[in-house]
Amino acid sequence: MIPLHPHDPPHIGPFRLLGRLGEDTCTRSYLATSAEHPAVDLRVVRSNLASSPAFRSAFAHRVETAYDVRSNHAPALLDHDLEHAAPWAALQYPAGPTLASTVRAHGPLPASALHPLALATAQALADLHTGHRTHASLSPEGVVLPAHGAVLADPGFEWALTQIQEEPPHPDFAAPEDGAAPATDIHAWAATLCWAAGTTAHERDPDRLPLQLRDLIEACLQEDPAMRPAAADLVQMLGGPAMPTPWAPDLAATLARAQEPANRALQAGQHRPKKDRTAPIALTAGGLTLALIAGLGAVWLTRDDGLDAATDEFPSLITDAGCLDQDTQLASPPATVEDLGAVQLDFSPDGDVIAVETEEIGLSLWDWQDGGEIARVFGDEKGSGGPNFAPVGCLLTAVSVHEFPGDREYNTLNTLDVPSGEITEHHGPQSERALDELERPRRSIGSDFSPSGDQLLVVLEPDHSLENRLAAVGVIDMDTGELTHTLGGELGDLVHDAQFVDEERIITEGDLVLEVRSVENDEVEQTIRNATGKFTLSHDRTEVFFLSEGDLVHWDLESESEVSRYSVQEYYEKTEPEDEYGQWGEISVSPEGDLLHFWWYELPPPEEQGDVIEDDEVEEHSYLWDLETGENITENEGDDYLVRNIAFHPEQEVIAAINDERGIDLLDPDTLDVIDTLP
């Protein structure tokens, strides 16, 4: 077994994926678990075939008829979903490596193992043929070696591929006449035995075949299918039928070692903490650091708290616990912080913790009331966004960086559940070629949670290819981790950012336009024009604030009308074509809707820029408006007043603001006086 690839979903149907078992010509095979079936071999159709009606129809027939298979030497079909975007079938897990992987890793099987291998696989074919079914695609990849005997990996799903291609799935093991008949299975059986012994069906080396098997294999490889014995006759000639017996000690030890990673994954998967537990698992800062993969950054937008849409039950990917709801306090971080280098920040939904993206120590969590850092979530790498907590529990988003051939990197959105330490990757609507690792996946550039936390938006960089305009926004079900809807992406419909309005609608930022869309069908329900940059929603998500040339506009989504606008002319002048040095930073609104903050910064001219732009080379500016009076509170303050991102406590107990030394000032929300500083 190998670890899951970044493109693999965490769940498919009712099954949680634990690792990859391998792949064949038409499916990927996963070790998976569910409440009903503790261990299954989950076969998922490859993305390049899932869009073929001919293949789907043929695969459906092979799966539906597999329920009739009854054999101790072939896996039972446990469940399936043929209407899924990528059809899947769940098979009984045989708990062993394949014949192919074993021989490739350790060489041909010893002579003593060939007879039990021959008998077990012959009995499997006899059972299929008795039920009027042929395997039609037998090869070493399709034989598994558990502790006792050998079993078929599946009842012959690969034959569905012949509906869309002329040659059989495994030409080196196919009979001369091709096709799907009992005699073709017999030829493939003999060719598989030859391969296991270290020779081939076409150039057979008699010295590699045990004497008692040579004549039998020769008979099974006859060019005339009528001259080959039947599977039931093979079983009789091999001394069966018989119950499978253990392998010889040396081979058994080899197979047991190969099976250890899968056994560990199953043990961990079956002991996964339940979401309704009353005593959540404590997690140390060191454990968090080890749990996260290298290169994690963070992408964070707005969140909502206490909305009517929130449900009593937490989604399955979110633990029912707050950031400080631990049996024991989180372990101390590895070092005292002297220079935080804060970039962006966010409060947890219960208001107990501030998550801070930093330039110096990575992503860290702070108990703001006692002033202590409680966890350093990942390494020393600089993040690539800002923290975004889900509206319930203690789950936040982060970005992992992956390499792609040709020194091209891309990032993938992750969610990290802090109490359990569980990380889930969300790839959004990638192309089939990207999912098959043939081209670099598109980068994640944004995310947002729905008001209940039941759904997650993944925003990808636009697809600029004219041949295949792909969706830019994916909606993830936080119960299963599956992609349920895709939006945007048609020609002329570029999406640069998106947030949830409610559980059924999102708002997207395109070229000079904001659009409210239905999640279900991507239908545009409202259009707001002349939007020239960043936007954010109020905490009740009924109003939107967006840049429009020299103003920041306050817009009511329910009445579809402008409420007010606030001048940002100085910022706009710095973004004009002849002076493109102004960059927006962030827009944020207080939970009560009484304060509006906008931060932007001015880069030095290109001729004055070095390889790295230092802090003292960047001019930063803030606006903070009282929305009741329209007053710009910062107008008469110093240049270093609220110069960077701020975060509002969900109960308005405090305002956290990044100061000019990149520490965090805690402000009184009424007077805006500094009452404490982190660190």
UniProtKB/TrEMBL annotation:
Protein name as it appears in the record? Kinase
Per the UniProt record, the source organism is Nocardiopsis coralli
Q: Where is the composition biased (Basic and acidic residues)?
A: 423-439
Q: Which UniProt keywords apply?
A: Kinase, Transferase
Task: Outline the extent of the Protein kinase domain.
Answer: 15-248
Region annotated Disordered sits at: 419-439
- What domain of life does the UniProt record list for this protein's source? Bacteria
GO molecular-function terms, A-Z: kinase activity
Keyword Kinase present in the record's keywords: the answer is: yes
What InterPro entries has UniProt attached to this entry?
Answer: Kinase-like_dom_sf (IPR011009), Prot_kinase_dom (IPR000719), WD40/YVTN_repeat-like_dom_sf (IPR015943)
